[in-house]
Amino acid sequence: STKAPLVSPALVNPTINGIAQSGYSGFKNLLINGGFNIWQRGNGSFGSGTYCADRWLVTGSAPNVDRDVSIERLVLSSASSTYCGIQQRIEGGQNLSGKEVTISFLKSTSIATSSGYITIRPKKISDGTSLGTSISMTFDNSIGSGSVALTATMPTFTHSPFDIMIEVIISLTSATAEACNTSFSNIQLEEGSVATPFEQRPYGLELSLCQRYYEVQDTPTMGLSNYNSWANESQGRIPWKVAKRVPPTVSGYTVHNGNLIASGFGVYSAYFAMNWTSGNSASISGYLLADAEIY
């Protein structure tokens, strides 16, 4: 087999069956998990500054996000808020400079707010600096169900393609703090001036796209091999299901029968080294929660 070339972790852009794993991947829908059927972090509730459905970040004052499992949609609500929303940061997007884009989705509102807003803007991944003028559009958020489709022209921007993201924000606003409740589904951002039918990708493919940014290793109980018996030490490596965008932050695991003396988390795997306190091995168990999201 042919080995992958050595590259900087920050530039890793893996493929699955030849399909690129970045947000701007050649699919019609530039958003990942716009159908809200991937929720690796659980079903809610989620507050401001946290990721909820995979790839979607909660924003605003006193928001709550929950999963409606009956029809796979995201419910955005608040008991009292002037601004709450969800956003996705699409990795890449340099090809959208100066192009027309259309965003479309389904929404169902039970408690209305004054306005619904959509903001789309190019930014640097490294520091969040804007790369051009933001697009700002409004949509009707009155009580009831319906579809939304809006078209705008992206600003012209240029920057290193590995440090560009397109930030997409859908928010509910009001002049004074008040309650709100709106459900969203089938969110799609595509190039062009026409809203086409929502792109339904296979579940396994959509999950793999999400796992570039966040992955749960389900109860990976692993005995680590003895590599230094005179020092009672063990080591082992756990490969990720999908290579990560950057070396992830990892939590959720427990060390058994030993002490952790070294660990390392790369874009392809997690490494552990431990010394055991009894017997002839130590182990890792629980969940490996690997977070390589864009914050």
Describe the 3D structure.
It is a single chain. The relative contact order is 0.18. The protein has one helix at residues 203-211, and strands at 15-16, 19-20, 44-46, 57-60, 64-68, 73-91, 100-111, 115-124, 135-139, 144-153, 164-191, 214-217, 222-223, 225-228, 233-239, 249-256, 258-265, 269-276, 283-291. The model is unreliable at 1-25 (pLDDT under 50). It contains one helix and 19 strands. The protein is 3% helix and 51% strand. The strands form four sheets. Strands 3, 4, 5, 6, 7, 8, 9, 10 and 11 form a nine-stranded antiparallel β-sheet that branches. Strands 12, 13, 16 and 19 form a four-stranded antiparallel β-sheet that branches. With 295 residues, it is mostly beta strands.
